[in-house]
């Protein structure tokens, strides 16, 4: 879809993207995380740059090569990511939540390595704050786009999330297909309905999503 010259459709826009996964530490060497390559969020950030947007990337753990963006901030945990996002959100026109944010964190973090003893170790988990939902409910929110990671009832669950988090747009994505892959297959859901894109490279999906986004901003 992209040609040699990418039109600067997003010139003058400020876009923030979260990507990768957060890790909720139990002790200095162990944590709870989600599997996420970070590739979709990074592809979006790279394409947003190519399309002329001032791009801020808030990224968690990933092994993917990080694109060159206007501003990049590492956030290790869901709490770190929440604070980093909130610190820079006021200036943004658009917010893309692509990160696999851990839904829960251990209720305590040991400062020393936990030693093994009992056969069964019980860990209590506390729910993390929802970054995307809280950004979307700011008094003057940026245009918010969520990524719904689902293993079943993909479209239905994504639609429910769009309404629950009050998002103008959500991208539904079957995680088993997307995970770690260079390709992805997504459905865009907004107030006008749903639109399924052909399976394509994450880079091309990023271009299509940002081109669609542009039509919503005007
Ligand atoms: N998200 C977020 N902060 C969280 C959890 C999720 O910003 N604490 C964002 C993700 O980045 C994604 C969207 O919310 O854009 C949907 O994430 P997903 O895990 O699919 O949905 P949840 O609302 O967490 O619901 P569940 O995991 O129960 O399906
Ligand atoms: Ca979740």
Automatic annotation (TrEMBL):
Residues 10-214 form the DNA/pantothenate metabolism flavoprotein C-terminal domain. It comes from the Bacteria. One of its GO terms (molecular function) is phosphopantothenoylcysteine decarboxylase activity. CTP binds at residues 103, 113, 147, 161, 165. In the C-terminal section; belongs to the PPC synthetase family. Catalyzes two steps in the biosynthesis of coenzyme A. In the first step cysteine is conjugated to 4'-phosphopantothenate to form 4-phosphopantothenoylcysteine, in the latter compound is decarboxylated to form 4'-phosphopantotheine. Catalyzes two sequential steps in the biosynthesis of coenzyme A. In the first step cysteine is conjugated to 4'-phosphopantothenate to form 4-phosphopantothenoylcysteine. In the second step the latter compound is decarboxylated to form 4'-phosphopantotheine. This is Coenzyme A biosynthesis bifunctional protein CoaBC. The chain holds residues 179 to 396 of 398 of the full protein.
């Amino acid at each position: 879809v992209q040609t040699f010259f990418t039109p600067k459709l997003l010139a003058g826009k400020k876009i923030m993207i979260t990507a990768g996964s957060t890790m909720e530490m139990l002790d200095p060497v162990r944590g709870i995380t989600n599997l996420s390559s970070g590739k979709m969020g990074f592809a979006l950030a790279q394409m947003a740059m190519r399309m002329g947007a001032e791009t801020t990337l808030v990224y968690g753990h990933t092994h993917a090569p990080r694109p060159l963006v206007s501003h990049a901030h590492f956030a290790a945990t869901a709490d770190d990511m929440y604070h980093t996002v909130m610190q820079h959100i006021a200036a943004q026109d658009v917010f893309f939540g692509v990160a696999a944010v851990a839904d829960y964190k251990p209720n305590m973090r040991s400062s020393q390595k936990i030693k093994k003893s009992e056969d069964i170790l019980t860990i209590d988990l506390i729910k993390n704050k929802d970054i995307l939902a809280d950004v979307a409910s700011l008094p003057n929110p940026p245009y918010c786009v969520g990524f719904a990671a689902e293993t079943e009832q993909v479209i239905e669950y994504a639609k429910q999330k769009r309404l629950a988090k009050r998002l103008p747009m959500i991208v539904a994505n079957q995680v088993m297909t997307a995970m770690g892959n260079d390709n992805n297959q997504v459905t865009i859901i907004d107030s006008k309905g749903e639109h399924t894109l052909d399976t394509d490279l994450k880079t091309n999906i990023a271009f299509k999503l940002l081109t669609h986004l542009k039509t919503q901003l005007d």
